[in-house]
Design brief:
This protein has 384 residues and is mainly alpha-helical. Helix content is 80%, strand content 0%.
Length: 384
């Protein structure tokens, strides 16, 4: 009987081990089911992280709906921004979201009122004289002033005069205006080939003046200007100029700006100009507040080329989530890793549980055969 006792002991240990395997299998299965949706979303986000349009489409599919569209349109109309409201209308139509007809009509009426001749003339004059555009019409005035150097000279005289007098000056405005003066001749010489960069400079200046230039983007522009503008030479040249001597100021600016080193800055302003061309002036201004680096501005430009007039609504609704992953890629990879680990744990535990169940079944059959054989031997011994 000792062999039978060993077999029973093996049964008991096998049963306890099998229970542990089943518990491990259940835990891994529950964990995998909980994490798999997040892991699948992470995979999809990582797959489209370099495509701003696809990334925005995915975000919108998750969050943008009819109540949200109506809320955003009414909010835009409430702050007298029919351009933003119309952008949301375009976005809703593209997403096949039905909007109330009276709301769409209200947007059209507001846009028409803003397009009246008197309103357009006022905004054009504001852009030309003050240099603070917030739509296409006022930007046309600003761009006209900058193209004929009037706007840039105005900014150089104002900020340069402060710097020469030892007062606090906005070096970023001064630097952008100086680069604008230096490249305007190039714009004429190439018959407008440099126009996107020229328009982009005007928009960046306007964003700075109106407080729409994000802090990090401002730092990036300032870094680019440090390699382009010789500030000591400019300070000396402007000290000899006055408000009645704009020609002296322009000459000092041209001598202090090294256009050949402005590639990074001009690349940024070209991207801003692309956004303005495809999506409008306010979209370009909004993007300068959202984007934190020239690289992100390039992503916004790609988004604008794909989405056009919808770009401003997308930037308003999604923020930086429209152009960049709001969750670190490392965190997304962790979700994928843990989900894969739990799936692997489930498969391994299930495999081992099946193997152990088979071993236990075979051991039970052997034990029964052994017990039957021992009973036969015992019966034979008794008969003998």
């Amino acid at each position: 009987m000792p062999r039978l006792k060993l077999t029973v002991s093996g049964f008991r240990s096998s049963r306890a081990y099998l229970r542990l395997l089943m518990i491990a299998t259940g835990v891994c299965l529950i964990g995998a089911l909980a994490l798999l949706p997040r892991a699948v979303d992470s995979v999809r986000l990582l797959a489209v992280q370099d495509d701003p349009a696809a990334l925005a489409d995915r975000r919108l599919a998750e969050t943008f709906d009819r109540p949200g569209a109506i809320r955003e349109i009414e909010s835009a109309l409430g702050v007298d921004d029919p351009e933003l409201a119309r952008s949301f209308v375009d976005l809703a139509r593209d997403r096949r979201i039905d909007l109330p007809p009276d709301l769409v009509e209200k947007v059209a009426t507001a846009a028409k009122a803003r397009s009246s001749p008197a309103s357009m003339a006022t905004r054009f004059a504001q852009g030309l004289i003050v240099g603070e555009p917030d739509d296409v019409v006022s930007l046309a005035g600003t761009a006209l002033g900058d193209l004929f150097v009037f706007g840039d000279i105005r900014d150089v005289i104002r900020e340069g005069g402060r710097m020469a007098a030892g007062q606090e000056a906005d070096h970023l405005i001064l630097g952008l205006a100086s680069v604008g003066i230096a490249i305007t001749a190039g714009t004429y010489a190439t018959l407008g080939v440099g126009a996107p960069a020229r328009i982009g400079l005007s928009v960046v200046k306007a964003a700075r003046k109106t407080g729409r230039l994000g802090a990090r983007m401002g730092e990036a522009v300032a870094r680019s200007l440090r390699g382009v503008v010789d500030w000591s030479a400019m300070r000396k040249g402007l000290a000899a100029a006055s408000i009645t001597e704009p020609a002296v100021a322009v000459r000092a600016v041209r001598e202090a700006v090294k256009v050949e080193k402005a590639d990074d800055l001009l690349r940024l302003t070209r991207d801003v100009g692309r956004v303005q061309t495809k999506a409008g002036t306010r979209a370009a201004l909004d993007s300068l507040k959202i984007a934190e680096s020239p690289r992100e501005m390039t992503r916004v430009a790609r988004l604008a080329e794909s989405k056009g007039a919808q770009t401003r609504a997308i930037l308003k609704y999604l923020g930086r989530g429209a152009i960049a992953l709001t969750v670190a890629a490392f965190d997304l990879v962790l979700w994928i890793f843990w989900a894969a680990l739990l799936v692997l744990g489930f498969v391994v535990s299930m495999k081992r549980a099946v193997e152990r169940s088979t071993e236990r079944h075979l051991l039970r059959k052997k034990a029964r055969r052994l017990a039957a054989q021992e009973r036969r031997l015992a019966s034979a011994g008794e008969r003998a």
